Amino acid sequence: MAAFAAAWVLAARNRDLSDFSAGFSPDRFMLAYPAVGAMLASRRRSNPIGWFLLGMGTLTAARALAGEYALHELAGASRPQSAVWAAWFVGWSLTLIFPGGLLTFLLLLFPGGQPLTPRWWAVGWAAAGLATISVVVTWIDPTPVTVDGLPSVPNPTALRGSIRIPATGPFGGGTWVLGGVCLLLAAASLFVRYRRSAGEERLQLKWFAYVAVLSLGLLAVLVPFAGTSKSASVAFDATIVAGIGLALPVAIGIAILKYRLYAIDRIISRTVSYALVTGAVAGVYLGCIAVLTRVLPFRGSIGIAVAVLAACALFNPLRRRVQAVVDQRFDRARYNAERVVAHFSVQLREEVDLDVLGADLVGVVHHVLAPTHLGLWLSGTVSPSTAPGEKSA
């Protein structure tokens, strides 16, 4: 946290020196990784996921501080050796996280701390070996260290002489490509684990998958516009910070600590339904604008007002229909519960026998709420559903 705070202070001073601070901004906001990692490591010490998050947060904070310090010092004429070492650290440290570093192990071992089968350990050790090779080759490569936005500096650990080694930094070379393959394999193991999982583990994986898919989907939408304007770049960086930097570690913490896992199905169904409804309403609005302003003789604010009214009138009916369809797929428990309650409501209007109604009511409550104990009191009597010797409530 101290490293993050120092990086913020230096970034404020470096704002006029280069675009490096703006491009480096997501690193300075990854505070959720060390925070969630420290909490998990203290409460679930045997689970390595917390330690991985803590390591990723520590490396990110160190990169942010080293990058801002290097920019601050290398912008002047003195160029102290400490700034050269800071730029050198920024040049290779990302390899320890992405693609074949800690992130691969995080995907491979989530949520219980063990791979799907012992054979999957080969993917982790291959990723660790590739990351090590990439880092070592970057250390001894005599090519000057170049990081986007930072001045080029000589490699302080390069092998001198006639040996020339192809540059294989974290964003180039064969080791990076192979590390990406290991990362994809680790993600595939997570998918296979989800297909084979049940109960609590499946809910844990749903939390991770929900945030990952939502964040990557938003980033995929924003990628084509990231470099077109400053506001688009800011939106892209903000999505990285909110999705990858904040929501993902928080979702991992919820899954590991098993905090209200049951809510994920409803969250997913609401997200999918509102995304579909928003897209449909936006399409109707734009379609009305196009028709009213180009085909029909409505111009200016009149056409816009009619389009807004049409979109508003469509929202609630469309939301109810889409929600019912989505619940059948993503929130089946709630959908089944609503069907049971609807069926009981019909039966309640037609049935007159209190004993039958009492038994049906007990069955509905058991199916919908699944209580540990249930008793039904009617006119001073206790229904047979109450266990012998148990007091009714």
Topology (elements, then pairings):
Layout: H1 2-13, H2 20-23, H3 32-43, H4 48-74, H5 81-93, H6 102-109, H7 121-140, H8 174-196, H9 200-222, H10 230-257, H11 263-295, H12 301-330, H13 332-350, H14 354-369, E1 377-378, E2 381-382
Antiparallel strand pairs: 1-2
Helix pairs in contact: 1-4, 3-4, 3-10, 4-5, 4-6, 6-7, 6-8, 7-8, 8-9, 9-10, 11-12, 12-13, 13-14
Description:
With 393 residues, the chain is mostly helical. A two-stranded antiparallel sheet has the order 1-2. It has 3 domains: 2-261; 271-330, no CATH class; 334-382, no CATH class. 68% of the residues lie in helices and 1% in strands. The chain is globular, with a radius of gyration of 28 Å. Helix 4 (48-74) packs antiparallel against helix 6, helix 8 (174-196) crosses helix 9 and helix 12 crosses helix 13 (332-350). Strand 1 and strand 2 (381-382) form a beta hairpin.
Which tags fit this structure?
about 400 residues; mainly alpha; two-stranded antiparallel sheet; 14 helices; 2 strands; about 70% helix; disordered C terminus
